[in-house]
Amino acid sequence: MKQIAIGIDLGGTQVRAALVDEQGNILARAEDRTDAAAGPERVLSQIHGLAEGLLAASPTVSVVGVGVSAPGPIDTVAGVASDVPTLAGFAGFPLKAKLQARFPFPVSLENDGIAAAIGEWRFGAGRALDNLVYLTVSTGIGGGIVADGRVLRGRKGMAGHIGHMSVMPDGALCPCGNRGCFEACGSGTAFTLRARMRAIECGETVLGRDGATIDSQHVFAAARQGDRVANQLVDEEAEILGRGIMSLVHIFSPDIVVMGGGLSNEFDRLHPGIEAYIARWAMPAFRDVKIVRAAMGQNSGLAGAAALVFLAEKSPRDYSRQPRKT
Amino acid sequence: MKQIAIGIDLGGTQVRAALVDEQGNILARAEDRTDAAAGPERVLSQIHGLAEGLLAASPTVSVVGVGVSAPGPIDTVAGVASDVPTLAGFAGFPLKAKLQARFPFPVSLENDGIAAAIGEWRFGAGRALDNLVYLTVSTGIGGGIVADGRVLRGRKGMAGHIGHMSVMPDGALCPCGNRGCFEACGSGTAFTLRARMRAIECGETVLGRDGATIDSQHVFAAARQGDRVANQLVDEEAEILGRGIMSLVHIFSPDIVVMGGGLSNEFDRLHPGIEAYIARWAMPAFRDVKIVRAAMGQNSGLAGAAALVFLAEKSPRDYSRQPRKT
């Protein structure tokens, strides 16, 4: 029987489940809209239901364990969700124990940015590298780090909250309550907000013409059609991302920076601006870092959560100490 | 015979040497003004001369090795100084090989921020902790990180250049060439510059009265005497440091943040402002991090450089993988 892990990617909008083998191949996949307002027991039922459905359709697999990626900050040492703004009732919730109670397999729990970093490191754009910074640019900005061949976890396993690096004193308001966080300035949400404001301020753009809605895809589409304001907005976004990434490059000295999340769908348009910022402003010794798009797309977190299971099985006392190369 | 390491702390202003035992005790110490303009061979002679002098006066010790802390960024994997602005002729200089040629003992080389972090971790304020961010606030801002019980090195061993995290777009000019780096806004140099400008702008301060020079000590002294402008300057500095430290706390999730460098002489005055920033603006799960003053003072780097030697001896292939607790 094929040995597989169940990977779960719990987000504020979608909850995804997959059966994943040790090589990161996704054998089966299911998803549901997260019932975010209904409280943790309902969300746990969704997770369990998705996993059960996948297993029922794949009777010939042997399950090694369940790996769960969840929005942070989660204390993964205690297994407790401290404060998840996008999910009602998850403050101080003993998520790992509650998950374990639903499954007859060992459960591993990881902050979502770290899980996605593991996915890209084991199976995606960062394979065979020892130093990787992963960032996801989407509704918010999150991340995870691999340094010196090991996953960086920090106290309570909460390292990698790079979206709450301050990039501008008294800048845009962040969902965390502070102002000027990388997330508040550089996320897809921030980009869309800037586009909507700019469309009101500047007449000379197709954005928002005749009351049309403006989302990030519209800005990139208008930019491709030569709209000057749209191109300016995209160039500004690339500069904000480039500046944040440069900070992370000085802090971690990675081999590679991997960008995922919704805005990475437009990576080809953003990449030259990001790279130009690094080439001009990073210290010379750091300028040759590679900035690449996530190779696993939406599946980085799912595959990373599953990878946790295989790593934990090999070295149960401390899976982070497992040598990376298999 | 007592086993000791020779610790060397090479800086742009001072070069220091010490004989250090495995418990971090400094048995003998010597220093010299760095002949920074005279080129690397002269600086190497200074280092060698200091070490020889210490050994001549301590004939009963057995030397395990030489550990050298030097200003970065240094590629400690290749042993090459890439670009040291404060030392003439150190660009692309094979520092480790040149040091090794002068000593009959094994030489270890480390970026200065990392060496000081190791000193505080093994012997100072971070003993018995697995997650530590060290920052030095002095002429510039540097740092080093211990995460999950191991020294964070990154590609080429260049991690920890936290002074070049961008904290303000188009902010103050940084020696690195960029604008708005943490160092450009928060270092002792930046603090002094702000004080001099403020003294010119505001009449109502004792700072600079009758053409007096203004250095950081003068500002703290005036603040203690109740000078309003001086107190404002100090509060601003604490806020800049608090904001930068908050970013690092979100990024690394440390147990403790250790502040060294010249401005840490005024740690008691700065600490309430730093802590107030963290308490108000860090995400709740991170607010209980401790911010403390470096326990080894000027000796963090010297002791950390020496600690490298003992770590390297125990696990020569990869001293970073040595278990921390001895």
Uncertain segments of chain A of ≥5 residues (pLDDT<50)?
316-326
CATH superfamily caption of the largest domain in chain A? ATPase, nucleotide binding domain
The major pleated sheet of chain A works out as: 5 strands, mixed
Task: Classify the fold: give the CATH topology of the largest domain in chain A.
Answer: Nucleotidyltransferase, domain 5
Family (chains A, B): Belongs to the ROK (NagC/XylR) family.
Pfam family, one (chains A, B): ROK
Protein name (chains A, B): ROK family protein
Keywords (chains A, B): Plasmid
How would you explain this protein's 3D organization?
2 copies of one chain form a homodimer. Chain A has 326 residues and is of the alpha/beta class. Chain A has 2 domains: 2-112 and 298-321, Nucleotidyltransferase, domain 5; 125-294, 2-Layer Sandwich (Nucleotidyltransferase, domain 5), CATH 3.30.420.40. Chain A has 9 helices and 12 strands. In chain A, the strands form 3 sheets. A 5-stranded mixed beta sheet of chain A has the order 3-2-1-4-7, with helices on both faces. In chain A, a hairpin with a 3-residue loop joins strand 1 (2-10) and strand 2 (14-21). In chain A, helix 5 (188-201) packs antiparallel against helix 7 (228-252), helix 6 (216-224) packs across helix 7 and helix 7 (228-252) crosses helix 8 (267-281). The first copy, chain A, is globular, with a radius of gyration of 20 Å. The model of chain A is unreliable at 316-326 (pLDDT under 50). Chains A and B meet through helix 7 of A and helix 7 of B.
